């Protein structure tokens, strides 16, 4: 599928830069616009740190569109049952629990960085976009 290392390197660079550009346009820019009307606006970037499945799936697919749904709901097997393996189960379950805690906090009080998610050691706070449109913080 990707015959040479050069092909893989090119794929990785273009995928990374394309993903960053997409986030800047369709997440960060949109969040800044929303903050004009709703000052407490949050966004997340789903990029799990564990392998997303067996090769070449882990490289080509990564954390693709809608991959986070089973993490927020605590169920599911991922695309075609490929990304969830015994090897990545411990990290996947920890991330799944943290994401469900963020969602529970957001549903209860409008802030994903509340009582439940504060118990998640080693997990970053959700990004809060400020009304001024200046960067982001927590």
UniProtKB/TrEMBL annotation:
Pfam family, one: COesterase
Protein name: Carboxylesterase family protein
UniProt-listed SUPFAM superfamilies: alpha/beta-Hydrolases
Residue ranges occupied by any Carboxylesterase type B domain in the UniProt entry: 30-116
Domain of life according to the entry: Bacteria
Taxonomic lineage of the native organism: Bacteria, Pseudomonadati, Pseudomonadota, Gammaproteobacteria, Alteromonadales
Residue ranges that the Swiss-Prot or TrEMBL entry lists as coiled coil: none
